[in-house]
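User: structure tokens for RimJ/RimL family protein N-acetyltransferase, please.
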Amino acid sequence: MDKVYWRQGYYEQDSCGRLYQKITNDPASNFWVVKIKDIEIPIGIITFIKREYLDDYDIGFAFLNKYSKKGYALEASAAFLMDQIKNEGRSNIFAITTKANSDSIQLLEKLGMQFSKELDRENSSLQVYSLMTDKFLLNELTWQFFDVFTNADQREPDWENIYRICLPEVIIIRKHEDSSDIYNLSSFIEPRRAMLMDGTLTGFEERETFAETKIIGNIAQRHSKYQKEGYVNGVYFKGKGNKFFQFIRTDGCWKICSVIWEDE
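Assistant: Done. Predicted tokens:
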């Protein structure tokens, strides 16, 4: 994770009130405190609870108001789920919320969770979401692709990661109105590495704003809308566009096999 991390079973202050008290008194409950890396400040918690009315554990989250809607909950929850899938072998994870909690529902859907059923429990009507493991893994691949080229906030791009998430034979295409630029990994990365490292392109960040993913067996496709901003030779710019990703599952892992994009 980039901005935050968690530590299991530890919390310095009862900032989340009744939820904190409830989970510490329940042996079927686990929780992790989420902190900002640079300043070691606790900002919220991730919970992992086995409830009697669900077949497996459910993930939950609670963050202090001043740190809400800043991406911390998404980043911490995604990293936690990845750990559970890859290191604990879990493929069946739930989440519960209420129909009125639109912020929670939006976050669960971003994580690749899908509405499963409605239950009447705990004096309220609960919406049960279940993790779509493949969609979650494709979300992670896509976010990592966008993140490779970020140098905002004095971050250094992780160039090696693109080799981990893409097939060696990946094809990357930029579409212009009347022409196309076609790249392999090396021809795509090198000019961008130079611009991001020599000061030509600074404060750059590109992020996904919309996604629609289709999975059929061991192949998948994703339409992403994106926004980007930064400084070229000190001059601020902002733009947006569309990307199409294609993925293939090989040796049990999803990889990016092609990317095509066009700026608007």
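User: Anything notable?

Assistant: The helical segments are 17-24, 72-86, 102-110, 133-147, 159-165, 185-197.
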